[in-house]
Write a structure and sequence with these properties.
The chain is α/β, with parallel strands linked by helices and about 325 residues long. It is built from 12 helices and 10 strands. Strand 6 and strand 7 form a beta hairpin.
């Protein structure tokens, strides 16, 4: 019986048949070819299955699975990872295009940094009009302290690591599955969990061309649920990093209420600037239940409870509230 390949590539997809072939072709053309490509389809209703079945019949590395029901993110990603057999597990997205050396460079980076739990890289951003720009970090070497990843998140409310990484299977097994409480951005929580106990490998080259989501995708613009998930991850990891980053955590805890207010105000202004009145009315309705007097006054003066989105409940403010 042959041993499993060293790398499992987990490609999660849902109703993106029009862009999926470009992604799969770039993965099958990798210079490092000893891998299994697990395509986990979250119950797509378009031509995704037919496309994937065709690839599977022509390349033995391709393994296609279709969920019996829609699991959403992160359930679909968890299902793919649980099927992976490789020592290294790469998470990749439908629609993105990968340079031929991606897997080779990721594996070389993890081999060179045994203390690293995962590896990420620079990104090339492709806009709707075809224009391109680089998303680049200032890390100088191939090894980044996990604490730096956490500090970046605490300072900016954003992750410098996006959803496309390759992690050690052993690190995933120790850390556990992606946390469904944080929905579409549960990967941010995962990278912080892995960074707490590991260094992080970094390739300072743009190995991935990130294509934009469709304009009607729910998270293609400001989304208040996304913000609550961010606050929940933030508060969770302030507690988890308290012993390894005591001074920094004390500072970020002290400034959190002011910075959270500034963040939400900026998001509301962004919605106004782009005339996204749907998001404005949702945000004002949500602010009616805010735990701070300024936001609560704004919400109760200008917001209507009937404009709150269907996913919302006042319990979301518990996620955003600083824990003792």
């Amino acid at each position: 019986m042959s041993s499993p390949p060293p790398v499992s590539i987990c490609l999660t997809t849902y109703n993106r048949a029009s862009v999926l072939p470009g992604t799969v072709d770039s993965l099958l053309a990798q210079s490092f070819s000893d891998f299994e490509l697990i395509i986990n389809d979250d119950c797509s209703s378009d031509e995704t299955e037919a496309i994937c079945r065709d690839y599977q019949s022509n390349d033995s590395r391709v393994k296609y699975f279709k969920n019996a029901e829609n699991l959403k993110m992160p359930g679909n990603l968890n299902a793919a990872i649980q099927r992976a057999t490789g020592d290294y597990i790469a998470n990749v997205h439908d629609g993105d295009v990968y340079v031929p050396a991606l897997i080779e460079k990721w594996k070389e980076a993890l081999d060179a940094v045994p203390s690293a739990g995962f590896v990420f890289n620079d990104y090339e951003m492709v806009d709707h009009d075809g224009s391109r720009s680089l998303a680049r970090q200032s890390y100088g070497g191939p090894c980044v302290s996990g604490k730096e990843i956490a500090i970046h998140f605490f300072r900016t409310f954003t992750s410098c690591v996006w959803g496309t990484v390759m992690a050690r299977g052993s690190a995933y097994r120790r850390s556990g599955l992606f946390d469904a409480r944080f929905g579409f951005i549960s990967d941010v929580d995962m990278w912080l969990r892995l960074a707490k106990d590991h260094d992080v490998a970094y390739v300072n080259e743009p190995l991935i061309a990130i294509t934009p989501r469709e304009p009607n995708h729910p998270y293609s613009f400001v989304h208040w649920r996304h913000d609550f998930w961010t606050f929940g991850i933030y508060n969770k990891h302030l507690s988890l990093y308290a012993s390894s980053l005591p001074e920094e955590v004390r500072r970020f805890r002290r400034t959190y209420p002011r910075r959270r207010l500034q963040f939400l105000a900026y998001q509301l202004l962004l919605c106004l600037r782009h005339r996204r009145w749907d998001r404005v009315t949702e945000g004002l309705a949500i602010c009616r239940d805010a735990d701070g007097p300024l936001l609560r006054m704004l919400g109760r003066t200008f917001g209507r409870a009937t404009n709150a989105p269907e996913w919302y409940s006042p319990d979301y403010w518990d996620m955003a509230r600083l824990r003792a």
